[in-house]
Design brief:
The structure holds 2 protein chains of 2 kinds. Chain A is of the alpha+beta class. Chain A is built from 10 helices and 4 strands. The chains are: A alpha+beta, B alpha+beta. The interface between A and B is medium-sized, with 31 and 28 residues.
C-alpha cells in the first residue's frame, strides 16, 4: 500500500515528510492540494486536517498530520530500512528530539517569516516590511551562531550521523538560501556551511529538490 | 543521582515535572528567576544556549527537550504516556505538535501579556491579547470536535499530548480569568476536569508554586 501525502511538492512542510520517505525508501504518491486556491481551507480538506494545514498522510486506514509527527512515525516504523534517522541509544534519540524541537521553536518561525516577507508577499503583489525583515534576520543570525557553536563540536546536530533533526531544516534552509537571497546566513558560518553542503548533497534531498524546483 | 530540573516556578518546566511525577521518577528542582533574567546568565547559557526554560541535568547528561526521553526511558514504570502501538505513538506526536504550533503560541502570548507585563513594567498590548484570544478560541473549537469523539486527544488513553496542555491551561482558567473558554465547550470542559484532577498535577502544584499564587 502506497502512502498518500496530501500537499504540494513545493511547500516546505510536505517536503519535510517527502524527504523522510525518500530517505527511508518508502513509496508514496502526492495528492495535490492547491494552496494558492485556498483548497486547504475548504470544508472537504478540513475533514482531513481540522487546522487547514498541509501535509496529511493516509497509510491505508491510518491517518496522521503535523509533519514532525509524521517523520517521527515513519522513522520509527521503518527503523530497519534505510538510514537510521533516530540515533542508536535513548540518549542519542533524546538529542534528535532536542534539535527537532530547536528547529521547530527557535529556527522555523524566523525562517518562515523571512520567506513570507521576501518571497511570498512579493509574489502576491504585496509589499514586505523592511524593518521586520531586518529584525528577523538579526534574530536568525543569533540562532545560527548557536548552531555554529554546536556544529564545531559535532558533525551533525544530534551527533555523528544525519538524523531527523538535520532533515527537518532542509526545506526552509533551501528557500532561505535561494528564493529569499539569504545564503550569506549559511555561507558566512564555516561549520554551518559545511553541514549544509553535506545534508543538501544527500541523494534523497537532491531527488526531492529536482522534483520540486 | 537525581535529575535536576531548572525553573520549577514556571509553566514549561512544569510539563517536565508533571511527566517525572507520572513516571514516578525522583527529581530535584533548581530555581531560575525569569524576572531577574537569570536565564540569560553565562552559567545558564552553558546549559541551554537559547536562554530558555526548562533544562535538565541527569548526571552528565544535559537536555532541553525532555518529556519524550523520560517517557521512553521509564516506559515500564508509572503511567504509560506514549500509547501502546507505533500508530498510537504517532497520534500522541500529532497532538503534541498541535499543542506546540496551534495552542501554545496563543496561550503563551496571553501569559506574557496578561501575567508578565506588569512584572516587567510594560503595558499590555490589547491588540495582541485580542488576536491571541481569537486564535485560541478557534483551536479550542477544533479540540471540542476531537474530544466529542475521543476521551483524550490521542485516543482513549491519557498521554504526553494531554499532559503538555496542563500547565498553561492552569493559568488560563486561573489568573487569566478565562475559564469560560474551557467551560463553554462541553467536551473540552470534561477533558480539562479529568486531566487537571490527576493526583500528579495536584502534587506538582503543591511542590512548585507558580509566581501568580
Amino acid at each position: 500500500m502506497v502512502v498518500k501525502v496530501y500537499g504540494s511538492v513545493k511547500a516546505a512542510c510536505p517536503q519535510r515528510v517527502l524527504a523522510c520517505l525518500l530517505e527511508k525508501g518508502v513509496e508514496f504518491e502526492i495528492v495535490q492540494v492547491d494552496l494558492d486556491e485556498g483548497e486547504h481551507k475548504r470544508p472537504e480538506f478540513l475533514l482531513r486536517q481540522p487546522f487547514g494545514q498541509v501535509p496529511v498522510i493516509e497509510d491505508g486506514d491510518f491517518k496522521l498530520f503535523e509533519s514532525r509527527a509524521i517523520i517521527r512515525y515513519y522513522a520509527a516504523k521503518y527503523a530497519n530500512q534505510g538510514p537510521n534517522l533516530l540515533g542508536n541509544t535513548l540518549e542519542e534519540k533524546a538529542l534528535v528530539d532536542q534539535w527537532l524541537e530547536v528547529e521547530a521553536h527557535n529556527f522555523n518561525d524566523l525562517a518562515f517569516n523571512l520567506v513570507l516577507q521576501l518571497v511570498i508577499l512579493p509574489r502576491m503583489g504585496q509589499r514586505s516590511d523592511t524593518a521586520l525583515v531586518h529584525n528577523l534576520e538579526q534574530k536568525l543570525e543569533a540562532v545560527l551562531n548557536i548552531y555554529e557553536q554546536r556544529l564545531s563540536k559535532s558533525n551533525y546536530l544530534a551527533g555523528d550521523s544525519f538524523t531527523l533533526a538535520d532533515l527537518s531544516h532542509l526545506p526552509a534552509l533551501r528557500y532561505l538560501m535561494n528564493e529569499a537571497g539569504m545564503a550569506h546566513l549559511v555561507t558566512q558560518r564555516k561549520h554551518v556551511n559545511a553541514w549544509w553542503d553535506k545534508i543538501s548533497s544527500r541523494p534523497a534531498w537532491k531527488k526531492l529538490a529536482s522534483l520540486a524546483h | 543521582m537525581v535529575v535536576k530540573v531548572y525553573g520549577p516556578a514556571y509553566a514549561s518546566p512544569k510539563r517536565v515535572i508533571l511527566c517525572l511525577v507520572e513516571k514516578e521518577i525522583e527529581f530535584e528542582t533548581v530555581p531560575v528567576d525569569l524576572i531577574k533574567g537569570e536565564q540569560r546568565s553565562p552559567e545558564y547559557l552553558k546549559l541551554q544556549p537559547f536562554g530558555e526554560l526548562p533544562v535538565i541535568q541527569d548526571g552528565d547528561f544535559i537536555l532541553y527537550a525532555i518529556m519524550r526521553y523520560y517517557a521512553e526511558k521509564y516506559r515500564s514504570q508509572g503511567t504509560e504516556l506514549l500509547g501502546k502501538t507505533i500508530e498510537e505513538r504517532g497520534l500522541v506526536e500529532q497532538w503534541l505538535e498541535v499543542e506546540a504550533h496551534n495552542y501554545n503560541p496563543a496561550i503563551y502570548e496571553l501569559t506574557i501579556q496578561l501575567l508578565f507585563s506588569s512584572k516587567f513594567g510594560r503595558p499590555v498590548d490589547e491588540k495582541l491579547v485580542k488576536e491571541s484570544d481569537e486564535k485560541l478560541g478557534k483551536t479550542l473549537d477544533v479540540y471540542e470536535e476531537r474530544l466529542s469523539k475521543s476521551k483524550y486527544l490521542a485516543g482513549d488513553f491519557f498521554s504526553l499530548a494531554d499532559l503538555s496542555h496542563i500547565p498553561f491551561t492552569h493559568y488560563l482558567v486561573g489568573p487569566m480569568g478565562r475559564q469560560h473558554m474551557i467551560r463553554d465547550r462541553k467536551h473540552v470542559s470534561a477533558w480539562w476536569d479529568d486531566i487537571s484532577n490527576r493526583p500528579s498535577w495536584k502534587k506538582v502544584l503543591e511542590l512548585c508554586k507558580t509566581p501568580f499564587g
